[in-house]
Amino acid sequence: MNFEYNGNLLEEERINLVANEIINKYPQISITKAKEAAMLEGKISTNKTVNDELSRLYNIMLVNSDDKKIVAIIYNDFINILRNNTINNDHDKFYYIAESIHSFLNSLIEFPYLSDFK
What we know:
Blueprint (H helix, E strand, L loop, with lengths): L10 H15 L5 H9 L10 H14 L4 H17 L7 H14 L13
């Protein structure tokens, strides 16, 4: 997924840019849901980080939590990022949230909130 510099854009322009980046990667997501996820994301004014990638994927799963098929697709990408990157203590919350999302996908719990893992 693209993570373009958007620190210079107005909020509406930034939301539209991020929503388009989401839809380009996940065309099954509606523009409305993509914009909702984009609204949860801050500006990108430096090189993207693993944290940026994981946060965006989490936000996409959160706004689509009423559709487990979509969440499962995004979850696989989330897990691949965790597996393929060196994760430090700052990213521990993403391991915990991954476990909880797995439980959600197996209908054991409601969709977890990242704020509960900080």
